[in-house]
Every structure is written in structure tokens, then in C-alpha cells.
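Obj.: predict assembly geometry.
Materials: sequence records (below).
Method: joint structure prediction, all chains together.
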Amino acid sequence: MEEKTKKRKKWGGVAMRKKAVLLSCILILLLPLAGCVGKKEISDLAIVMAVGIDEGKEAGSVKVSVQVARPADARGQTGAPAGQSGEAIWNVEAEGESIFEAIRKLSSISTRRIFWAHNFIIVINEQVAKEGIGGIIDFFSRNQELRMRTKVVITPDSASEIVSTATGLEIIPGEAMDKLFRYSAISSVSAQSDMMELLAAYLSPSSEPLLARVILQKMKVDSEKAEAGASLKQIELAGAGVFKDDKLVGILKPEEMRGVIAFRDKLDSGALIATCPSNPNKNTTVELDAPSFRVEPTYHNQEIRFKATLDVDVSVVEAGCSFAINNKEQVKTLQNSVEDTLRKQIMTTVNKVQKDYQADVFELGKVFQNKYPYEWKKYKNNWSEIFSTTNIDVVVHSEVVSGELLFKPTESGKKEKSKE
Amino acid sequence: MTNNSKEKQFTNHLTENVKMIVDILQQSVDFVKREMVFHEQKQIKTALFYIDGLASIQHVEKVIEAIMYEGNELIIRNDIEEDSLLKLLDKHVLMNSSFAAITELDKGINAILSGDSILIVDGCSKAFHIQTKGWDTRSVDEPQTEQVVRGPRDGFTENIRTNTALVRRRIRDPELRIEAMNIGARTKTDINIAYIKDTVKKGLVEEVKKRLERIDIDGILESGYIEELITDVPFSPFTTIMNTERPDKVASALLEGRVAIFVDNTPFVLVVPTYFWQFLQASDDYYMGYMAGSFFRMVRYAAFIISLTLTSIYVMLVSFHQEMIPTPLALTIASGREIVPFPVLLEALLMELTFELMREAGLRMPKPVGQAVSIVGSLVIGQAAVQAGIVSPFMVIIVAVTGISSFVIPNYSASYSIRLIRFPLLIASGLLGLLGFSVMFALLAIHALSIRSFGESYMAPATPFQPTDQKDSLVRFPWWAMKKRPDLADGDQQKLGENQKPSPPDPLAKKQMKSKNENSDISSRKKEEENGKGSSAAANSQAKGKQQAEAINKKETAQTSSSFSNKDEGKLDTLFPVNQPEEQISVIEEGVEKDNAAMEKQQLFLQKTRNITSASGVKRWKKKRKKGKNGEG
Amino acid sequence: MKVQITNGMFMALIINMLYAKSIGLTQGVIAREVGGDMWLSTIFASMQGLVVMALVVIVIKRMPEGDLIDQFHQIFGKWIGKGAAFLVFIFFIGAYGSIMATFVYHLKDYFLPEAPLVLFIAGAFLIGAYALFFGIEVVARMALIGIFSIIGLNILLMIGSLGKFDIRELLPTFQSGVVKTVWASRHHNTDWAMATMMAAIILPIVKEKKTWIKSGTAGICYSAIIIIMWPILETGVLSPEVAAQYIISCMQMARSAEIGLFIHRYEMIMIALFALSILTQIMMTFLCSSIAMQKMLGLKDYRPAIIPSGLILSGFSYWMVKNHHRAMHIIEGIWVPVSLGIAVGLPALLLISGFFFKKKLKMKKNNANVQG
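Observations (raw C-alpha cells):
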């Protein structure tokens, strides 16, 4: 060691420089030795747009079906003529004992490498969901290719059929399904559920997962067979599925979704049908604007109560009868009617979730934890039983603020004349 | 070979001298020897040597004329000795603008080869070196490699004296020094070093001279030779010496404390030291408004980044990290690449090569054909290649955008070094994806950070971060905000006087016009510095006196304006004062006072008429009229 | 080394040394212990860091011409000085291992899963050797670039994830109890230990002695501010349980961030920025270990020591990083007492012994004054 240091002390000598240069050359040459490891050309990839998981034929096996985009058909001719066959997607399915194995089997069918990074949506059949989706959650969160904001939905129909249906206005059906959720807040019929939220809810000590639900419904009119009416199936948002741990325990219908969305996300504007104040046989449709929703926990004598308050502004969008916005009585009646309807809707959901399913999808555990952290420790371990016994009060306040553009009621002028 | 002639000197005898010169220069067809007789009676023979083409025939003929005609004068004086022969010729005969007497043969030979003439007189041991240079040169024209929209359009030529003159015209400071030297054993090229003495950094000129003197080469044909021989980093693709064809660039560099190196026979002048970011600055930035200049400068920075990294990023994304591409774009790229047989890296290299081919071809082709190639090449070849399925359309766009961005960089040699650096980056990112890209980028960054250009860090003022120099780096601050010279310059740091920000004249507060007396003026400050600190006391008292005068003037204006409102008829004097000293009412003030006057008049009129226009007022007026009438009648 | 670096560069170096590992790896470790209170642990750790940094500055100020090892040499003699150098070397080997774990797991697991590990190690070695060849100035300038990229990275992340931020995840505080939270801060302590040890070695080169203490503590403060954003966002956006699940939680958060509808995953831009900072950290660790080896072997300049120390560092990090389990075991387990012991122990030892051996220090100062 000493001799070497003596030699090395002469830094700057030519021999030393040459050695350093040689060593660095060797190191630099080491890099290309890897030989483009990990390189995958984009034209060698089968870009998966949607994936569906069903039960396989044998017991305990899964069937994975994927929707792969065909770029040449999806985009049209951008260069030299490519192989265009007119179909924008290519659907295949494979079975295996576990998801990973099924996917491996897919590679024996596909000419290109299956690439998950652009996947829009994961569709899970309800039968599979009832048996537990823990394995699915694990697979998709361990994999580094998948985006964590991929949507996850359940369906009573066959997932592979959903995945293969050409639906929506988009070229790629997977993209269409993803976009379905973008405007779902307007109709409030389904929740937004993506992989990240699912994982967070699954790992959470108190909250339970809630997944959106889709069904196939004959809604599209075939332009060539117009006389047959709606004959082609399209994908429709239809409520949500309530999970306990990782098993599906129940379904919430689309009408019941408003209650859940209020607790979990932000409620957007929604529509509501109330009875007309002046004519109980007719209906008035109102739009609920600027809803603000608060939940407050209270804790007295070892009893947990939750008070939920919903404030909405009401605008009359469709009045089937004569309704004047400056008629105070009519307004009051309408308000009461709206409040009642809303309350009933939310309470139905709350009761269903609480009593029937006993799964805290409302994230009330977190709310309680935030306000009473010390008391929470007592109830942490058996929250789901306690949740089903707590009292949840719902109070709704509404205020009619506008009749859209009109100020006077829309009625036939002739009636008035006869009155006069 | 030349050693002997260095020591050789001219002798008294004409024939020997002539033989010596002819021996060395021998038999070139353009080497002319002209023999004349001077002083008919004494038959003093003279010989004149010059190179045809290098020497201007007019000047040579002047010499001959002088010798042959003016010799008559000496006929009057019969007495001629050796010494006075020199003096005679010097004072009375030769009419050229400059000449000298030389003794060494070597200098004489150099003089002949430079275009001057050598006159040898029999009996005189000194030869006359007469300035007769004159040859054909290109006229001063717009530089072809650096064009501007706004700014001077003269560029350097191949004549070194013209070049230095172009710079001298812009800097009339007596501190501008130009020193000369010769480099190149066979070419003996003239090199001039220019700098401003009290601004240049200490030690810089000596360093430059040291490096230039170290050069030992047979010929310097262009300033590029010198660049390579004195650079700080011989192995780096970065250029540490700036070269330019524009005199205004050289002048501004000299004002910042740099040194310029002029080389004969080339219009490209070198400027040292250089920062890397200078290559991204164009003269336009400084002459257009600062907002436009800053905007275009940022466009250039973006172009720099694009030309360096865009292709590498594209290759990296498409080959390794397809998840980063937005999905619709990914599908489009995939569809374009469906039928291309090559991997992306190879495709990129192929397209880059093609682009370079087209560019080089456009440069070398004769002008009439060159235009066709550039247009046809870019459009048709690109489109045709895509149709043929050799490249994907996306790649054509990427390469085209990269190419265009690299031409945005104003300095041609800098754009070249950036194009060169692009290739290792491209290959590294094509081989290893993100790891390759970041490793290679870091290596390049480290390399760039370690370069020094004549002692200055190459990447200043970004790193090491010099806050004082930031006013000209990312954006250009207005001229009235750039107060100091860059950190590079020693000596006089103050570049700008006080309060240079322009503003419209303020009518309310009286501001004196500051041009003559104010100490903030640069030239007067300079004089002050020269006179020493004694005058500063005087200056202070001067300033005080000024303030007092201002205060007095303020009062006076207040008085005048208030007095004006009281009396309506003109004190015309107050509107146009004649005798009031140091009171210069600006045009706006005049206007304001006129308005005030008009308003006053109006108010008075209204006051009068108010009494009339109300109902009771009308009655009163009628009464008054009646009274008046009655009074009259 | 006659080179000098400015105070700004010194602060930049401190921030760079702290940043890379603390935002991801450390947060995952802390989340596994205390869940939603990770940010509190980080704050506690930073406060401790301030104290130790002040301690280091005070200690070095006593003998400003030499660094930590030189002081040991001066006070205790040659062999203990060499022992101190050896301990410092061990420290930086461990530090390099954890830094390489960060580097490799960020780049390899998420972007290049099939690339062989050797490439990453060799690439880092190459860059470190190349930069050190030019000297510390170049590394300090890279640190300045690193600062800009860190700020850019923070801003990009905030843009992409603030939309999904849920403050309810953070509240209530001190869920796991104060003691546990403070105890969990030891993991972040190992991060600033790297910065303080680096400061102990390079303080003599920093200009302007008077502002050493201000720049040192300011550096730790700034880095605390920049780093604290990450655990807060990670808890709010992901949720503490998810953050605890992953080895590198910062990457997970970066992957979930979205700007608008068309840029779904821009973590590559963030990683490119992040890479500059972590490469600076690699270079700096390399430098400090070469200096330690130089002092250990009694060489005049650290350049001959670059290659042997680099080889040792690379070998160790290769062994450590290859197995995820082993790496996490070392980082969570062994490394904590080792690093804190060396980083706090050595300066503390000097502080105490400095009181007893003041004469020796003064002698050195006088000698220096006479010479210089």
C-alpha cells in the first residue's frame, strides 16, 4: 500500500494520466454492453385500453380479457398505407389460475408485448367481486406500468362482453368508458372510483371501498335498421357496489347514489323532481345548485351521533304547472317538498348502507377520528359494528333562488283573459 | 537560411545591395526592379524594388517622379554628402505619406513582400522603406453570416487596417490601444490586439500576448488557426473564443473589458474571453426595444434547449418510456411507426444524417442550383420518405424543428458545437433511456461547468451565480437600468450616469434641466476624478446652491400662480417672464397656466350670468335694464 | 486545495445533500412507523439537524484551516486522526449505499426494470469520478443547477396533486403519540447527518468565516421547508396507509399526479429534474469519501484516492441494493445507529476535548498565522 501511494503521489505524471484515460474508456465502453436492454419499440407494443376480469370456467380460475388498440385503424392513415381492417380494437381473452398467469397466457396469443400503461379502465364481474378483489388490488398496485388513476368498475354482466363492446362517441371504447365518468357528476348516478382510492379505502382501518357500476343496456339505434329502435347495447352507468374489506356485499341503485356521493365526494349540481305546489298531479323539476354538505360528529355519554347538513340553492328548470317565483307560498311549499324528497333519498341510502350492508363507505370513521381522536382509539377495532348502530341525522335546507330565465309563470294567456 | 540575412545590412554600394536583394527574391515575374538616376551631374544611381500587384502603382510612380524630377532641386546645391543625402531625400524629395530608413536586409525583404517599396541609393548605407501598399480588396459590405434587422450593416473585410479603422470609428476613446505582432513563419500574418486600457481586466492582455507568442507554425491563413492554438480546452466541443464579422459586436465587447484579436486576410475577428451565453445573444437584442429584445432572447434559449434535447427525448420516450406519452399521442405515433422497419434510434440517426447532407449540399452548391435543393430537399424528400415508409412522419417533424432551432443560434460556430454535442446525447438516450440521458447530460454539464475561458468561468453568470450580471442574461434590462459594467471589467465600473430613466417633464414640481451643471454627468464625473478629490467640495457647495435656487424658484411659481387667480386681466409678465433668472417654464407649464387663466375667466362670467339665468335673476336683470334705460332716458 | 466556494454554494450543497433520499425513502419508512404524523417527525428531525449543524460549525471554527479529521489529528495525534478518518470513510460508505438505493429504486423500478444493476452503479461512478477530477468547484456549481431543478420539481408536483389534497388525512395530529413521533424522527436524522458530515469536511473551503454559522443553519432551514412539502402532500393525497405500503412513496405520488386531461404521467420530467440533484449528492459523497481516504492514507491530494474509494463504494452499494429486503433492512436498522453515532459523536467529542486541549489548537492557529 505504501509503495502504491508513493507512486500515486506523482499526480499529473503521464503514465498516471494514461491509466486514468484508459480506465474511463473502459467504463464508457461498459455502457453500450447493455445493448439497449429494456428497449421496447412503440410499434412492438399491444397497448391495452381496457381490461375485464371474469370468473373462469374452472373453479377458482380467472378469465382476463383485454381490449387492445389498433393504431392504424384508430388514427387513420398518417403515413404509408398500413394494415387497416376497419376495426379500431382487438379483443382477446385468456384464463389462468391467477391474474398474472392469465396475463402471461395472453402473451401466447398476442404478437406484441402487452402494455398496461395506457389502460383506462378495469372492469370486474360481480361474481368475482363477491369472492374478493384483494388479489386484483395487489396485482395492479404492485405493477409499475399501471396508472394509479385508472378507473375500476364492477358489472353484473360479463366483463369480457363489456370490454369488447364498441360504445360511445370515441374511437376507442376504453377511452369512451373513461370519459363516461367525467360528466357523471351531472347525473349523480355513479361514483368516481379509481385505483388509488380503492387502495386507500382497502388499507384504511375504517372506510370501506365503493366501486362504480356499469351495465349493458340496449340504447343505441342502428342507423341501418332504424325501424328496429334501440337494438345495440351500450354501456351505461348504474349505481355502485358496496364492499366490505374486499368482498362485494351490496348494490346501490342509481337513485340512491346521491346520498353516498354527498358524503364521499363533492356533490355537483343535480336534478330532482318534486310535486307542483299548485297542482299535486303535476311535477316540477328543479336543479340543485351550489350544494354544501357538512357532517359533524357528536359524542355524548358514550354515544356517537352524526349530524349531516345539506344546503342547496334551488332553481326551477321545468315547471309542469304554473309556478311564480315571487309567490311566497308556492315557494315555501316547493322548498318543503324538495327538502323532504332529498331527505328521504339520502336516508334510504344511509339506512341501506348502515343496516343492510354495515359497511362504512361514508368515511364517517375518519370524520369521527378527526374530531375525537382519543375516543376513536376505543372504537377503532370494531368500527363496522358500531357504525351500524350510530345515529345519523340528515337535515336539508333549501332555498329557491331562481326560475332560470323566467319570472312569470308559463301559462296559457287565454286563461287569464277569461279570468278577467 | 534566414539567419544570415538577419544580420546582413545594407552597404554603401548599390550593386552589392541590389545583388543581395535579387539573390533572395530571385525570379518571380511580379518582382520589379526599377533603376533610376538621381542627380544627373553626380550620377547617383538608385534602384527601386516593389512587387507588382501588392504595391499601388500610383504611389510607386510618385516615388519615381520624386526622384527623377525633384532631383533638379539638388542640382542647385552641388554639395552632397552621405548624411545630408538622407536628410535631403527625407525633407525635400520624397512625397509619400510615410517612410523610414532601415539598415537590415531582412526588414527590407519583409517590406517588399508586404507591398511596400525599397529604395536603395548608391553611397547611402540605409535603404528607404516607403509605404506604397495598395491592392484590391472587397468593399465594406453586410456580413453574410450575421445579419440583423436593425443595426449597422458594415462588416469586416480582409484588410486588417480597414477592420481596425471600423472599430476605431465607434470608440473614440484615447484609451483604446491597438498593438501589433506577426505570427506564422512563412506567412508573417499581421495580428492586431485591441483593448481599452482602463477597462480591460488586469493581466488579460499579457495572457493573450503570451499565448500568441507561443504559437510556432508555418502559416496562419485564418483566425480559426489562432483559435485552435490558443484555446483553453483543446479537446472540448465547446468554443471558448468568440469570432464575429460585425464591428459593433467587437466595439461592445471592448467596452465590456474584453480583448479583440484582428487577423489579416480574414474578416473574422476573435474576442476573448467568452461566456457561453454570449453565443445566444444577437446584436438585435440591444438595438430593438428591451421588451422585444428580451422576448427574442428567450425564444433563442428555448431554441437552444430544443435543438439539444428534443430528438433525444423523443427517442427515449418512444423506445423506453411509452407510458409518459399522452395516450392519444401515443396511438398516433404508433400508427405512424407501424410500417417503418427501423428502430427509433436508427431512424433518428438516419434523418439527422439526411438533414446534415441537405444542409451541406445547399452550402456547397453554386448559387443558382442551391435554392432548388433546399426547398425541394426539405419538402419533397421529407414527404416522399414518409410515403415510402422509410421514416415516420413524426420523426420528420422532430428533425425539422431541431434543425430550425439550431439555426436560430446567432453564432455559427456555436450552433455547430451544439449540433455535435447532440449526438452523444442521442445515442446515450437511445441505448439506455432515462439513465443514459441523465448520465450523459450530467457529464456534459460537468464538462461545461469546468471550462474556463481565459480565466473566466464559461457558464457565468448563471453558475457561479453573479447577481450583478443578471441584467443581461435571461432578459435584457433597459439601457437606463444597466448601471454597471459586467463583473469581468476592471477599472471604471460605472457605465451609466444617475437618473437615466426617461420620464415626461413634471409640471408640478419644478425640475431644473440637469445637463450642464449636474455632477451626475459621466464626462464631468470623469474629469472630476482626474482633477482629484478637491473639486468634490466645490461640487457639493455647487449642489447646495442649486437646491437653494430651486427652493426659491418654487416659491416664486407659487406666488405667481396664486397672484394670477386674483386679478383677471393679464399680468402678462407672469405668463411670459423675461427677467427672472434660472426660471425656465416648460411648455406644459405654460399650457397649464393658460388653462387656469381661461377657467378663471369662465368662472367670472358664470358668476355674472348666474345672476341672470335664474328666474329671480331674470327679473333683476330686467329691472336693471329698465333702470338703465330710464337712467339714460 | 486553494479553491474556495461561496456561501450560496455551500447552502446549495447542503440542500442537495438532504433532498433526494428524504422525500421518498425516508417518508415511506416513517409512515410505516407513525402513519399520518410523518411531517411532524420530519420537523422534529430538522430541529435536531439545526443543533448538530451549529455544533459542527462551532467545532470547525476553532481550527478553520483544517476540517474535522485534521482537528482530530491535531488534538489526539496521528493514529487517532487516522482512526477518525476511517470512521468518516465508513460513514460515507453507508451514506453512498443509501443514496444509491434511492437512485436505483427511483430509476430502475419505475422506468427501466430490465436494465442490469451494474449499469446504474457504473454510471454513477463515472460521473462521480469525472466531476471530482475537476475539483469541488464544479460540484458546487452543479449544486446550484440542482437547486433550480429541485424548486422546479416541487412546483410541478404541487400543480399536479393539490387538486386531490384532503386535509382530513393529516388531522388529527399526534395520533401515534408524541414519543413515538419523535422516536421516528431518527430516520430523517440520518439524512441531515450526511449534510453535517459533509459540512465538517468542506467548511474550510467556504469563504467568509463569519457567515459560516448563518449559511449552515440557513441551509438546513431551507431544506426543511422544501422537504416538508412532501410528507404533507403524501399524507394528504395518498393517505398514510398507502404511503406506508410503498418503498418509494414520493414516486407513487408523482405517478398519481395529473395536469389537466392530457398529461397523464409527467413523472419523467420530475425524475429528470430529480436526477440532477441526486447526481450532485453522489458526487459530493464520493468527494468526501475520497478525502477521508486521502487523510487515512496520508496522501497530499485526494485525486489518487478517487478510484480506489470509488471501487469500494460501488462494490458495497451493489451488494446492498441488489436485494430490496437487504437494502431496507440496512437503511431502517443498522444504518441509523451507525450514522448518528458517527455524525453526532465525532463533533461532540471534538467539542468536549476542545475545552481541554485548547492550547494545541491555538498552537496550530499561530503556526498557520505565521505561515500564512
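Conclusions so far: The radius of gyration of chain A is 30 Å.
To do: check interface contacts against the pulldown list.
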